[in-house]
Amino acid sequence: MSEAYSPIPELNLLKEFDDRIGPVYYSEGFELREYGADAGLHTWSEHPEFLSRFIPFAQANHSGSDYALWRCDDRTDLATLPVVLVGDEGHLYVIARDLRELFQLLAVDGEPLADFGFPAPEEVEEHSEGHHEFLTWLNRNFGLEPPEDLDALWTARKESDDRFRAWVSRFVELDGR
After folding, report:
1. What is the pLDDT of residue 138?
2. CB-count exposure of residue 171 (10 Å: 0-12, 13-18, 19+)
3. Domain locations in the chain?
C-alpha cells in the first residue's frame, strides 16, 4: 500500500514541501487537508452524481472555504482537472484551470484570492512566512513564477467556469457571479 498523500504527483510534491517547511503558511489561508476529505459539499447537494465529481484537498482561507478538483470528465491525469473553490459564503466556481495554475495563484500569497479580488502581486504588503520558499519550490519543480497578469489568468479560466456552472446548475442554484 502506498503512503503517498494522493494519486497526483503534483500534489505529492506540494505535500512533501508542506511537511518540510513545517507549520507555517506559504500562501495566506491555504492549507492542505486530507486528500478526498469532506469539504462540506453535501451542504450544496446530496445528489450522488454531484458529490462523486469532487476531490477536496485543501483549505482556501481561514473561514471555511476549500479547494477541490472537479472531475469534469474521465481523464486519468487528475492534475489537469479544473480546481473549484467551495466557498464558505455561498461561492462555488472554477478558480483555476488545473493544479499548476492554482499553484501560480497561491504564489500571489493573498487571502483575497478566495474572494475573487485577486491582489496584484506587488499589492500584497506582507507575505506569509514560507512565501519565499514556496516561490523557490514552484520554480524548481514546475518552472513557474507568480502570474504577471491576474486578469488574463482569470479570464482564461472563464470557459472552464462556464462549463462548470452549466453542469452544477443541475444540482444547485448558484449566485449571479
Report:
1. 98
2. middle
3. 9-168
